[in-house]
Design a protein that fits this description.
This protein has 3 helices and 8 strands. It is α/β, with parallel strands linked by helices and 122 residues long. The chain has one domain (2-114): Rossmann fold. Strands 1-7-6 form a 3-stranded antiparallel beta sheet, with no helix packed on it.
Length: 122
């Protein structure tokens, strides 16, 4: 199991990630890469829209669905119950204790992890 030892850092990376997700959901193949800087001052660029998204907080789940990317959500955390469609997605534990082995979550995690709390990417 993976325990979020430094929640603040994880939360900080998640919000920028969610921002990138929102930018990429409307991107097409001819668009240039979308880039942002993470909490370690590294440039993070995505050249294509995320195809598999794991949201690591209920708020991130709601924002992802609101952005129109609900079809790409493959894993959520417990209490991610809105919109109702989120209840059908596999849970990988709570926002403070992610279980990467839960329901084959390791295979589910892919393109993007978003927690929606702070402002920077994972």
């Amino acid at each position: 199991m993976f325990t979020l030892a430094n929640k603040k850092s994880v939360l900080a990376r998640g919000a920028l990630g969610l921002t990138l997700l929102l930018m990429l959901t409307s991107a097409n193949a001819d668009d240039p890469a979308r880039c942002a800087v993470d909490d370690r001052d590294r440039e993070v660029c995505l050249h294509n829209a995320a195809q598999r998204i794991a949201t690591l907080s209920p708020g991130a789940t709601e924002l992802t669905y609101a952005a129109g990317a609900g079809a790409q959500v493959v894993a959520v955390v417990s209490y991610s119950d809105y919109p109702p469609e989120a209840r059908q997605v596999a849970s990988v534990g709570s926002h403070t204790r992610i279980d990467l082995e839960a329901s084959g979550a390791g295979a589910r995690f892919g393109d993007w992890l978003g927690d929606g709390e702070s402002g920077r990417a994972t």
